[in-house]
Amino acid sequence: MTAIVGVRYLISSGGFALATRLKHPGLYRGLEGQMRREIGWSLASAAIYGIPAGIVAWGWQAHGWTRIYSDWNALPLWYLPVSLFAYLLIHDTWFYWTHRWMHRPALFRLAHSVHHDSRPPTAWAAMSFHPLEAITGAVVIPALVFLIPIHVAMLGLVLALMTLMGVGNHMGWEMFPRALVHGPAGRWLITATHHERHHAAYRGNYGLYFRFWDKACGTDIGLGDFGGSLDAAHRRRKRAAAEG
Ligand SMILES: [Zn+2]
Ligand SMILES: [Zn+2]
């Protein structure tokens, strides 16, 4: 499982890093050292994520312990989107509160500063967490599959969305159309433009998928504009050119 999580990370982050290179050439120039650190922390996190995931896979296959089901007719079809939404909502709630907690000074210094050492984050930062933070992230979905029934395909979709948004929110540019990000959907959904502001301000915008908790708790600080990171990329480019 650790190998699967690690390979999934390398493929998804590598794919988005390549997309970044094609769409915004030079955006990551000068960040090579940081990206190496991001990859190191992310692979360590993959090892941690693999342990509860492995226990779940084994418990499901060998013992039928979990509430994962594979027969499409085991539960009504309307339950499929409901279960998907429930998983995303609960994960988002867990993430919001643990993330806010990680921003308390002692915990920030101990653990979460690793994630914020990425200035600005790149596509490789998706799993760049201190092991303590990786543990809080790794237990959520494995715990939920023991509590809330979910079709194995919906579980796959949850994991795919988790990966897509985890990488996409850190890559330094917005992949979704402006009409979505700045339209009605963007008022409730979190994309890179929202999470970039969290990394720029070191506070606020703590959510994962939805802006609900940030809005309800007054921590939503609005959308970013990538101004800082694009300017910084420009400065790094000039510096690199001057150094030959
Ligand atoms: Zn943070
Ligand atoms: Zn982040």
UniProtKB/TrEMBL annotation:
Question: This chain belongs to which protein, by name?
Answer: Sterol desaturase
**Cleaved signal peptide residues:** none
Q: Name one GO cellular component term.
A: membrane
Tell me the compartments it is located in. Membrane
Record's Pfam families? FA_hydroxylase
| Highest taxon of the lineage | Bacteria
Q: What transmembrane ranges does the database entry give?
A: 39-58, 78-97, 134-167
Using the record's annotation, list all stretches that form the Fatty acid hydroxylase domain: 85-219
